[in-house]
């Protein structure tokens, strides 16, 4: 018996997942999703659940709740009723029940103190791999860029807690304003190969001048200028390794380039609370000689 997974089915289910994430405000009927998968309705439901571990209906609800959770955590000016309606719920009460069932916290409790490790655990179900894409790598000259940064040390599932500190510092001080400054992430280690306690990741924004003493743990830093290979990643930050690994594995050996002694870094062209995850754009910079 051949027990190898069927790559054609994986591609079809990945296509459905992508379709759901790109159409969160649409009515995602079984007829529509089975058509996207090019499978009959009776087979589609079983195949989707077999690949992901959840039904397509549940996947769509969790995708909407995931988007809502970013709105709750990072958009404190938004009313819960507006977030609930955007997520497809008729009332704040129904939204609150679904949110608590998914994340173990009420929306208001999550806004006050998000439990990000539990949040991550909710999305531990299997996700089919995206279809292979062609890399478009460019070589650019990156200028010295002074930054304000906050260092994250520890469990990568808590990076968003550190991001919240940086956001709070930006709002409180008016320095490195998000609308007119660049936002960066600088990973000093790979979360897939590093013990959680040893994981390091800097969250940063471009700034003019030094960072005054503050209670947020934000300090001055610099992204050094020089030649960089750049590739654009589209979609969730959780899947950015789908663009990083091919850059190192496939492009770098064929390019003849030599790496500089500075980690790759991310330039976030938009932010998770501003757009849906499928619309996120991130430029990945790989410093080379």
TrEMBL record:
Domain HTH araC/xylS-type positions: 14-113
GO terms, molecular function: DNA-binding transcription factor activity; sequence-specific DNA binding
Lineage: superkingdom: Bacteria
Protein's name according to its UniProt entry: AraC family transcriptional regulator
Organism listed in the record: Denitromonas iodatirespirans
Keywords assigned: DNA-binding, Transcription, Transcription regulation
SMART domains in the cross-refs: AraC_E_bind, HTH_ARAC
Gene3D superfamilies to which the protein is assigned, alphabetical: Homeodomain-like, Regulatory factor, effector binding domain
């Amino acid at each position: 018996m051949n027990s190898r997974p069927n790559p054609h089915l994986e591609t079809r289910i990945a296509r459905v997942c992508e379709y759901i994430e790109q159409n969160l405000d649409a009515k995602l009927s079984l007829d529509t999703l089975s058509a996207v998968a090019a499978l009959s309705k009776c087979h589609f439901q079983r195949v989707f659940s077999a690949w992901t571990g959840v039904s397509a209906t549940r996947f769509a609800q969790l995708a909407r709740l995931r988007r809502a959770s970013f709105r709750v955590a990072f958009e404190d000016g938004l009313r819960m009723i507006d977030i609930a309606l955007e997520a497809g719920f008729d009332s704040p009460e129904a939204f609150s029940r679904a949110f608590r069932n998914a994340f173990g916290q009420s929306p208001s409790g999550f806004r006050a103190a998000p439990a990000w490790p539990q949040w991550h655990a909710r999305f531990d179900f299997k996700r089919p791999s995206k279809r292979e894409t062609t890399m478009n790598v460019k070589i650019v000259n990156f200028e010295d860029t002074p930054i304000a940064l906050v260092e994250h040390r520890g469990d990568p599932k808590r990076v968003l807690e550190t991001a919240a500190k940086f956001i709070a510092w930006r709002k409180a001080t008016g320095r490195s304003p998000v609308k007119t400054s660049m936002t960066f992430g600088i990973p000093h280690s790979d979360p897939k190969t590093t013990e959680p306690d040893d994981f390091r990741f800097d969250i940063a924004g471009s700034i003019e001048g030094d960072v005054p003493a503050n209670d947020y743990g934000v300090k001055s830093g610099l992204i050094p200028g020089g030649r960089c290979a750049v590739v654009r990643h589209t979609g969730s930050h959780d899947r950015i390794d789908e663009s990083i690994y091919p850059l190192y594995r496939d492009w770098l050996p064929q390019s003849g380039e030599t790496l500089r002694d500075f980690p790759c870094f991310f330039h976030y062209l938009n932010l998770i609370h501003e757009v849906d995850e499928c619309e996120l754009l991130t430029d990945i910079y790989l410093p080379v000689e």
